[in-house]
Amino acid sequence: MTTSTSLVYLIALPLAGAAFLLLGGRRTDKWGHLLATALSASSFGVGLYQLSQMLGRSTEARPVSQKLFEWINVGSFNVDAGLLLDQLSICFVLLITGVGTLIHIYSISYMSHDHDRRRFFAYLNLFIAAMLLLVLGNSYLNLYVGWEGVGLASYLLIGFWNQKPAYATASKKAFVMNRIGDMGLSFAIMIAFATMGTVSFTGVAEHAHHTSEAALTAMGIMLLVAATGKSAQFPLQAWLGDAMAGPTPVSALIHAATMVTAGVYLITRSNFVFDAAPTAQLLVVIVGAITLMFGALIGTAKDDIKKALAASTMSQIGYMILGAGLGPVGYAFAIMHLLTHGFFKAGMFLGAGSVMHGMNDEVNMRKYGALRKFMPITFITFGLGYLAILGVPPFAGFYSKDMIIETAFNAGGIKGIILGSVALIGAGITAFYMSRVMILTFTGTKRWDEDAHPHESPWLMWLPMAILAIGSVTSGYLLSHGHALVNWLSPLFEHHGEHEELLKPIVVSALALTMVAIGVAIAFMKYSRQEVAAVAPEDVSIFTKIARQDLMQDRFNEAVFMRPGQALTATLVAADEAVVDGAVRGVAKTALGSGSALRGLQNGFVRSYAALILIGAIALIGAIWVVVQ
Amino acid sequence: MNAANYLYVSALLFTIGAVGVVVRRNAIVVFMCIELMLNAANLSFVTFSRINGDLNGQVMAFFTMVVAACEVVVGLAIIVTIYRSRRSASVDDASLLKR
After folding, report:
1. What is the β-pairing status of strands A2-3 and A77-85?
2. pLDDT digit string, tens, across residues A267-322
3. Cis peptide before A394 (omega within 30 of 0)
4. Three-state DSSP class for residue A373
5. pLDDT tens digit string along A136-148?
6. Element (H, E) at A71
7. CA distance B37 to chain A (A)
8. Which one of A74, A166, A390, A624 counts the least CB within 10 Å of its CB?
9. How far apart are CA B29 and CA B20, in angstroms?
10. Between chains, do B96 and A604 touch, taking CB under 8 Å as contact?
């Protein structure tokens, strides 16, 4: 373990930017976006410097730590606010700051007509700082601070245009659903503290060997709850679709590339917990498998380009969670898919933003069509991302997704066959809905509104898209060439015996490509051969209707949680009114009533007072007489 | 003579005074009734002094007389003032304190 003093700059630079822009107010309107972009880029520079330093050291000495200050020191419980940069965090640091900087650059142009651009950049910087704290914290408690920070930034950015009530509601929904996950994380921390007396990663990793499996399972499940909330996994997935209310760069950065992958980070970081708790690990796999199908099915029915991409994000993170749940063999592949996904999905979101930019912020794909000629650069960059997510060789997704499918098949027994099949079918559905997006948006006939004048976006917007597209093409090969990422990350994970191979890699790839081909073919038949209606047809099968309503996720939540919750609060309010308020009001009413009754005696007539005194005196004497007798 | 008879007279006087305070409206008469009650109390004090054979009750009676004298001075002054401003000595007319 090496110590360093420069880790803090990774976080401090964007945090300073956020503080400066928020406190500086309108004075910084003119150049605030440039400052924010520069700070994000300099944070990326620090990240690159750290990587170069790390590469120069031997494997054991690669992790870098920095103690910031003593945070909590109570008896034997001691938590330092400290940072830890190891082989896993550096991947995230470079992804966050790299993609983050590109999206800052993109936003300069995308948000140029928004009079609140400075505030937008301040929030972006705040997000970058919080996300870096999340991945750099050296204990669950430090991670928790970042975890809450990204939740806050996400809330602020989803509701950035909160003058529209629907957008404000979307941000609230995301925040509330995230809170449920956050509760899971806080429970996990409490369990760690109660059973092991420490909350630092190294401490928990040491104690995990001699902690009861029940405690580790409980902690693992709570960590999984946290991951499902932040990563929009089943059953806390419903917020992601609505989160598309935020500006498109936000969707690209937070709700595709970085924040929503925090759950994968959490599970991978907690590998020592999950490796020792097979039940929790099985649940992780199940959640991943369900979500990857869930997201894919929603994706097939969405006409809103951003919501289709959001459903796809949900599905792809399902793959990552699935990979992370497969144990030591899967962690590295989950991270690899996370990195490649960061490139191609962010690129596609920026492409969607570019299309919206040219089409008067229209998001309905049924009103696009034939944009290939009008937006050639967007078409090419989006297309490269499309090929990457499909898993066509040699694009990025081919390496990362096939690895997860292959690992799933090799998980052993009936579990492996089920998981592998789900992942394989998911790949086919992914191919279908992504082809649908491509076909509806870029090919076919024009179905535009009259006042649409599509045009290519300025270079500030297409440059980040192009860079991300290059990443979509090359990252898979670079990361898997000679098992680069697997070897890089291997010191962090427990070593494992070789699994028997159910299917050869080449067979898995062939199967996956077949599924992809089938998916593309169906999409082609359905949307390219036939005329696409500019208005979504109503006479569709019940399955389409259900998929259009996000597989009833909102209806389910409303029926199971919202309405009983509202009924519960209504009952509590009524009980509060009747019992607590009733008691308080009763006391006041009694005092008032007796007061007004007694007030009748105070009539101002001296003689009646005298009579009362007389009666009182007689009564008193009578009472004394009775007692004495 | 039985000392209890004095107490009966005292009780009678006190009752007359008390009833007078309650039933009469004229402030002067009410005032006199109060004096009557005070004197009834004085009579009791003196009687008890006699019964017990010490001077405590007699001393107490002097105290009562002093207090009664002071009270007369202040009370009559108030009554006269009220009469001057309201042209009435009825205690029921002076019932303004309730408002």
Report:
1. unpaired
2. 999 988 988 888 999 999 999 999 999 888 888 888 888 889 999 999 999 999 99
3. yes
4. coil
5. 998 999 999 999 9
6. strand A64-74
7. 12
8. A74
9. 8
10. yes
A604–B97 CB contact, under 8 Å: yes
0.90 surpassed by pTM: no
Distance between CA atoms of residues B31 and A30, nearest Å:
91
Q: Quick check: A183 and A190 in contact, CB under 8 A?
A: no
Which residues in chain B are contacts of A606 at CB distance < 8 A? 30, 91-92, 94-95
Query: What single-letter amino acid sits at A281?
Result: Q
Quote ipTM for the complex.
0.85
Q: Is A251 helix (H, G, I), strand (E, B) or coil?
A: helix
Cβ within 8 Å, pair A611-B22 = yes
Which residues of B have a CB under 8 Å from any CB of A? 18, 21-25, 30, 91-92, 94-99
Q: Which residue has the tokens 């709700």?
A: A255
In chain A, which residues have their Cβ closer than 8 Å to the Cβ of B24?
607
Residue B82 to chain A, least CA–CA distance (Å): 14
Cis peptide bond prior to A505, omega within 30° of 0: no
Residues in B closer than 8 angstroms to A611, CB to CB, are 22
A602 interaction partners in chain B (CB closer than 8 Å): 98
Tell me the residue ranges of DSSP E strands in A114-201. Answer: none
Between CA A85 and CA A91 the distance in angstroms is 10
